[in-house]
Amino acid sequence: MTLRIDMHAHFFPPVTREEAAAIDPQHAPWLRIDQDGDQGTIMAGERAFRPVYRALWDPAARLEEMDALGIDIQLMCATPVMFGYRYDAAIAHDWAVRMNDRALELCAQAGPRLLALAQVPLQDVDLACREATRAFRAGHRGVQIGNHLGPRDLDDSQLVAFLTHCANEGIPVLVHPWDMMTDGRMKKWMLPWLVAMPAETQLSIVSLILSGAFERIPKSLKLCFAHGGGSFAFLLGRVQNAWEQRDIVREDCPHPPVSYLDRFYVDSAVFDPRALRLLVDVMGADRVMLGSDYPFPLGEQKIGDLVASHTGLSGAEKAKILGGNARGFFDLPDEDAQTAR
C-alpha cells in the first residue's frame, strides 16, 4: 500500500474567550464550541470568523476521518488567524509558545500519526528564531509562517534572516498565504480566498527569485508553499519572458527564474487533474507533496484522490507525491511511516 502523508492540514485548539480577551478582547481568536460538541465557530473577538467542526480541535475525531480517508500521517499547523502578527512581539511570542505546546499535547493523543508545525512571532526575528528552535527540539517537525509581514514580503532582510536560521537549524518551513491583498473590491463570494490568495503565494515565490534572496539563503533550506504555489506554475512563463526581455527584471536576479525550481516545494492542493499535471510538469514529481488544507471546506474533501486517480501520473510519481517526498522533507523515520496505521 502506498504511504499517504498529508503535510498541509490545520488545527485550532480549544482557546477560551477569556484567554483570547487577555491578549486582545476585540480581535484575538478563540473557539466557541456548540452544546453538541461537534460544531463550533472560530471567533475574532465577538465576530464570527468561520464555522468549523470537531476534527479541527479533537484528535480522536481527526484520526477517525484519517482512517476513513486512508491517510497514514498528517502534519497540522495553525489556522492563519492564530499567527498574532499584529500584536506586540513579546505578546505574540508568549501566544506562539502556548499554541505550540498545545499542538504537541494534541499530537500526543494520536501517537506517530499526527505531527505538528509550529508558529512563531515573525515580527521579531530573534524571538521567531528562538521559538522555531525551541519548538523544533520539543517535537515539532517544522514551522509554518505567513507569506508576508505587513508590507514586507519574503525578500525582506528580516524574513530572509529567519529563513536562513531555519536552513542552518534544519527546520522545514511551510509558507501559507494570509491577510490577502484587497482594496475592498473583493467583497463577496470568498473572492479574497479564490483570487488574492493564489496571487499572494505567487508573489512570495517571485519575490524570493527576482530579489536575489535565494542567493542569500542557504540551499539547504527545506521550503514549501501551500496551495500548489498559488498561480506560480501557470505564470512562470510570463516571469521568465520578462527576465529575458527587461533588464529591470534581471537587475537583482542573476539566473533565469526557471533555474530556481529546485529551491522549494509545493503541495498538491490544486483540485483539478489538468492543474496537477501542469504543476508536476513545471516543478517535477520530486517537488510536489500531498497537501489537503483539511478540515476546511476549501480543502480537498477526499484527501489524495486527485493524485491517486490521476491517469497522467506514473505509479512512481504518485508514490513520491502521496508520501515519499514528505517523508524526506520532514525527515520522518521509516518506522513511523511503516507502523502509522
Question: Summarize this, please?
Answer:
The chain is of the alpha/beta class and 341 residues long. The chain has helices spanning 17-23, 59-69, 89-108, 125-138, 157-169, 191-210, 213-216, 232-245, 247-250, 273-283, 305-308, 315-329, 334-338, and strands at residues 5-11, 29-33, 39-44, 47-53, 73-78, 114-116, 143-146, 173-176, 223-225, 265-267, 288-289.
Model description:
By secondary structure, the protein is of the alpha/beta class. The chain has a single domain, classed as Metal-dependent hydrolases (TIM Barrel), CATH 3.20.20.140. Helices cover 42% and strands 15% of the residues. It has 13 helices and 11 strands. The chain has a 5-stranded parallel β-sheet with strand order 7-8-9-10-11. The protein has a 3-stranded parallel β-sheet with strand order 1-5-6. Strands 2-3-4 form a 3-stranded antiparallel β-sheet. Helix 3 runs parallel beside helix 4. The termini are close together. It is an enzyme of class 4 (lyase). This is 2-amino-3-carboxymuconate-6-semialdehyde decarboxylase.
SSE layout and pairing:
Blueprint: E1 5-11, H1 17-23, E2 29-33, E3 39-44, E4 47-53, H2 59-69, E5 73-78, H3 89-108, E6 114-116, H4 125-138, E7 143-146, H5 157-169, E8 173-176, H6 191-210, H7 213-216, E9 223-225, H8 232-245, H9 247-250, E10 265-267, H10 273-283, E11 288-289, H11 305-308, H12 315-329, H13 334-338
Parallel strand pairs: 1-5, 5-6, 7-8, 8-9, 9-10, 10-11
Antiparallel strand pairs: 2-3, 3-4
What attributes does this structure have?
single chain, 341 residues, alpha/beta, 3-stranded parallel β-sheet, 11 strands, 15% strand, 2-amino-3-carboxymuconate-6-semialdehyde decarboxylase, zinc
